[in-house]
Amino acid sequence: MVLERFRLDGRVAVVTGAGRGIGAASAVALAEAGADVVLSARTEEQLKEVAAQVEAHGRQAHIVPADLSDLDQAAGLGQAAVDAFGRLDVVVNNVGGWMPKEFVRTNVASMEDAFHFNVSTAHALTRAALPHLLAGDGGSVVNISSVMGRVTGRGYLAYGTAKAALAQWTRLAARDLAPRVRVNAVAVGSVATSALDIVTGDEGLTAAMEANTPLRRIGDPDDIAAAVLYLASPAGSYVTGKVIEVDGGIDAPNLDMGLPDLEEPQ
Q: Which UniProt keywords are given for this protein, alphabetically ordered (predicted)?
């Protein structure tokens, strides 16, 4: 009976950044649990490939190619779900990320852009989706945050600050939207997505990262998708305002970015 609580039969989900990696794995996991899925990302061909995987599980997929840094396009995904499937139950705010850069090369615009891409997009979509989530049995919002939102590491100033803000946004939104809508997040560690290609393509870097991870491996997108499914489904119905850490047990960055030291003033 417990396994039945992970089912999402008859439910509809929106997943951003769904063309590959964590977003794609989460969309397929939700479909495997019975949900129809709206998939959005920049690249239409990638979305078509993920849609085929969704349909292979007997569910429907609706693709929306979009630049989700445009808040109007992000906000429109809730209505797109209702137009395609008649309802909306789950929002997965996965789109995000930012390139590492040392402090002296992180200007104000970069800080603001990182916040926009990782936090404002989630807020825009969730706020626009709220009436649709409330129209059903309530809903679930799952945000993809990062271990860098709670640990320190050189080069992650903009990204880590944005992900920490997303984690706190999760807690605050959960209080505002309870009890009808649950809001949670997954703080991910090092996961084998395209963003980590520079590591996974180098045996030495891979070995170093694995050695510095308590569970001695790099994460798989399905590790994150499993947590997303738990939070999105009735299995997580007594969980809100929480940030679940799925990071292999790390308490510090598990790879030296090799950024130069700050030079002493002359």
A: Oxidoreductase
Domain 2-245 matching CATH 1.10.8.60: the answer reads no
State the SS3 of 28-93. Answer: HHHHHCCCEEEEEECCHHHHHHHHHHHHHCCCCEEEEECCCCCHHHHHCHHHHHHHHHCCCCEEEE
Is it the case that residue 165 has pLDDT exceeding 90? yes
So what's the pLDDT on residue 258? 65
Structure tokens at 233: 């489904």
Band (266; pLDDT cuts 50, 70, 90):
very low
Q: Contacts from 195-201 at CB under 8 Å and sequence distance 24+? A: 195/21, 195/97, 199/255
Active site residue 159: yes
What confidence score (pLDDT) does residue 159 get?
94
**In the chain, where the domains are located:** 2-245
pLDDT for 14-31, tens place per residue?
999 999 999 999 999 999
